[in-house]
Design goal:
Layout (H helix, E strand, L loop, with lengths): L6 E4 L2 H9 L4 E7 L2 E7 L5 H9 L7 H19 L7
Antiparallel strand pairs: 1-3, 2-3
Length: about 90
């Protein structure tokens, strides 16, 4: 039996945006060696199921919510890494 962790960590910006659009809350973020890691709250134990759905291309989220979260995370990544990009 696997132990539930209270936090899910990913450096995949689109996965994080998708999970946030599905209702997960980002508890914090960290930057390590030029990468940004998103830490999502998993106290309810729902993230692993959502990740399975995401990886199987079955996670359904509101499109506008996904775009909003992706834009916010992209901006955050640019601020933390100094790579603002052409559309920043």
């Amino acid at each position: 039996m696997s132990e539930q962790v209270d936090e899910y960590k990913t450096c995949d910006m689109y996965q994080a945006a998708s999970l946030m659009a599905a209702g997960c809350k980002m508890s914090r973020y960290t930057a390590e060696r030029g990468r940004v890691y998103f830490h999502l709250d998993n106290r309810a134990g729902l993230v692993s199921g959502l990740v399975r759905e995401y990886l199987a291309h079955r996670l359904q989220v509101d499109a506008l919510s996904l775009v909003d979260h992706a834009r916010s995370l992209k901006s955050l990544c640019g601020e933390l890494t100094g790579n603002r990009g052409p559309n920043a």
